[in-house]
Amino acid sequence: MANEPHGRALAFGALDDVTTTKGYTMTRFSKTFVAASLLALGAAVPALSQEVNIYTTREPGLIQPILDAFTEETGVAVNTVFLQDGLIERVSAEGESSPADILMTVDFGALIDLVDAGLTQPVESEVLEAAVPETLRDPEGNWFALSGRARVIYAAKDLDIDSFTYEQLDDEEWRGRLCIRSGQHPYNTAMFASYMAKYGEEETRTWLEGIKANQARVAAGGDRDGARDIAAGICDIAVANSYYYGLMMSGAGGAEQQAWAEEVQVILPTFENGGTLVNISGAGVAAHAPNRDEAVQLLEYLVSDDAQKLYAEANFEHPVNENAEVHPIIAGIGELTPDSLSLTEVLPFRTRASELVDEVNFDTFEN
Description:
Blueprint: E1 15-20, E2 25-27, H1 31-39, E3 51-56, H2 60-74, E4 77-83, H3 87-94, E5 102-106, H4 108-116, E6 120-121, H5 126-131, E7 144-156, E8 178-179, H6 186-199, H7 201-214, H8 223-231, E9 237-241, H9 242-249, H10 255-261, E10 264-267, E11 278-286, H11 292-302, H12 305-315, E12 318-319, H13 328-331, H14 343-346, H15 350-359
Parallel strand pairs: 3-4, 3-5, 8-9
Antiparallel strand pairs: 1-2, 1-4, 5-11, 6-11, 7-9, 7-10, 7-11, 7-12
């Protein structure tokens, strides 16, 4: 399974899949066909009597079982457009005639970008407000978290380590021993922005320089590559998302990845005076949703006890609904105590954190 989309900016890309829970499937359109579909303003989504249309950057296998369960329970068909990238560009190009009802993506920054582009609309729902903590939703109701993923530490099994802080990532103890993906990946810029919200720009710059000095190899690849490289002896610790460990350890990623996971221990790091960083997947109702009622109905279902259980079982993510249990593999990592900083408090620091990544040449490896 490939890692989920990343990069600083979304660029227009080919449509990967369009599926409907009533059995309609189209796969691997060429860019030419996508352009033609755009001219048709929504021809890629079949018209059904009661339906809801999702545009999402999430991998099909991660959400389709949950959408199928929604259709089975409600009779509402879910037509899903899976976009590798270019979500903002796609919906903007379609304008008021867009068939999109729900926009779903990963990383709170990507959700904010949708709001800033005017592509969402506010939703008032007692169900959503009761299920999703205030720190994990937009104050105006433009987006709601659906699941969480902790930013954790993978460590070699033979390391005597039972706790870790994000502040320790730049310690000289880890010179040449750390693996991490690109500093410009949203998972990392969110972490860096959180650090800046706590400590300010100059301390963050120094911290990033220390992390860069600790790298065992170029900052690249995906989170699962950190486990691979620990198993290969390239590094001793890696920064990664919690759910990737579940995907590997369960065997969902194949026998090779399961072997990587068996060579690491997972540490839930915290800030020295705080908790663990948690980023999200989330969704909002599209600004021109033609099926608004069904869109709200689906969002409410996605945070229900049953759907949140499916999220945990299928994706190894942390439910946002406190009534749903974490998958046993993830529960085995330890009890999660999220940091007290809300996503909206971190937001103002996201752009500057990204700029600092380039200023310290974070992604340039210097042996």
